[in-house]
């Protein structure tokens, strides 16, 4: 039984039981009738639980980093957030940034655009120019970048197969990762490679030493056509 039909069965069972209960408000069920009426609900709930991913608690705890939650005076203690196990830095430093975050006025506090809120937090500096919430904001943004569904992963693999085609099958992972970063970076900024203007800082870095230090020039730009199948040579 698929997950979606299981949810439908659970809702159907609950609606049926609620309808029957409203039609017989004064009827007292026997033990056998109670067990019989609740068996369907229990089995449907058990099947739903079996189909939930093991890391569903981590996914649900993402709301702890929403503006509504983290700016609340009643927000949970940082040590109680399941996502904290993914942080590899100084937890004490993270906690000192987590607690006073709600004491400052922020502009982007909508739950519909959580990324803008954390970018604002990342850019915040004190009077001395020091980023007060750097570690916390970077951790939150890294969590937002996690693929939480199969569709996200499938889109990345689809792009990967387009970039690393059969004629470019010797491309190394470093170059593949760089091209994917460029593609998604341009899409995030709403730009295109045709009208992209490199900055003055980028220009000195565009040399053979930086771009082809790992010897990927031959692997990527000049693939060996003879290594492809006969269908490609026709």
Automatic annotation (TrEMBL):
<feature type="domain" description="HAT C-terminal dimerisation">
    <location>
        <begin position="119"/>
        <end position="183"/>
    </location>
</feature>
<protein>
    <recommendedName>
        <fullName>HAT C-terminal dimerisation domain-containing protein</fullName>
    </recommendedName>
</protein>
<dbReference type="InterPro" id="IPR012337">
    <property type="entry name" value="RNaseH-like_sf"/>
</dbReference>
<dbReference type="GO" id="GO:0046983">
    <property type="term" value="F:protein dimerization activity"/>
</dbReference>
<dbReference type="Pfam" id="PF05699">
    <property type="entry name" value="Dimer_Tnp_hAT"/>
</dbReference>
<dbReference type="InterPro" id="IPR008906">
    <property type="entry name" value="HATC_C_dom"/>
</dbReference>
């Amino acid at each position: 039984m698929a997950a979606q039909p299981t949810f439908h069965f659970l809702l159907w069972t609950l609606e049926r039981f609620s309808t029957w209960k409203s039609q017989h408000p004064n009827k007292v069920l026997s033990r056998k009738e109670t067990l019989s009426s609740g068996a369907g609900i229990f089995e449907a709930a058990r099947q739903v639980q079996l189909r939930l991913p093991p890391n569903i608690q981590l996914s649900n705890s993402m709301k702890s980093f929403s503006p509504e939650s983290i700016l609340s005076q009643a927000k949970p203690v940082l040590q109680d957030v399941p996502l904290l196990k993914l942080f590899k830095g100084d937890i004490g430093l993270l906690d000192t940034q987590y607690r006073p975050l709600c004491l400052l006025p922020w502009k982007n506090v909508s739950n519909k655009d959580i990324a803008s809120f954390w970018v604002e937090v990342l850019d915040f500096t004190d009077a001395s120019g020091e980023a007060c919430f750097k570690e916390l904001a970077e951790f939150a943004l890294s969590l937002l970048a996690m693929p939480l569904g199969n569709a996200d992963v499938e889109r990345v693999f689809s792009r990967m197969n387009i970039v690393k085609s059969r004629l470019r099958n010797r491309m190394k992972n470093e170059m593949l990762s760089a091209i994917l970063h460029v593609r998604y970076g341009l899409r995030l900024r709403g730009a295109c490679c045709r009208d992209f203007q490199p900055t003055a800082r980028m220009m000195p870095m565009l040399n053979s030493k930086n771009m082809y230090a790992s010897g990927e020039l031959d692997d990527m730009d000049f693939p060996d056509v003879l290594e492809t199948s006969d269908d490609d040579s026709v």
